[in-house]
């Protein structure tokens, strides 16, 4: 990732460094990932880390953006491509089962798990806003289906969106607890049984 032994590295692969930092935060969370963990895993000194990324919080913010573009955009894609909210949520839950259990990276969702037990209100709030944005996307799509007659007129769009979000967040934690892809796919199918006819 870097070459040279002292001071600013002669060669610094920013994308590779962000990927390494992302895996560290994803595995351990924001709070439990220290600057010394990051410098050790990135193979750079603290001055180089600060010069490249600012502080730990700024690095984390950048990591969350990279994570979103690589691993979390599947929900927005499904909501845009599927013909109904139910089909989109079903696809999202099935894809989450695959992504959350992929052995190529830490289990679960970084945005769901990284803020657990953090003492940083800013980090917790930023991650909460991202999760709230996802719920708002779900709710908007559900409301569109209600307006189009694809869902009953009395459907509580907000509650249904929150239900889908709760299942997704639960699947993330279950994957961290060792649930397999097949087990999470079964959860996804059961969750869809609660969807209004």
From TrEMBL:
This is TetR/AcrR family transcriptional regulator. Residues 11-71 form the HTH tetR-type domain. It holds the Pfam family TetR_N. Keywords: DNA-binding, Transcription, Transcription regulation. It comes from Streptomyces goshikiensis. Residues 34-53 bind DNA. SUPFAM superfamilies: Homeodomain-like (SSF46689), Tetracyclin repressor-like, C-terminal domain (SSF48498). Coiled coil: none annotated. It comes from the Bacteria.
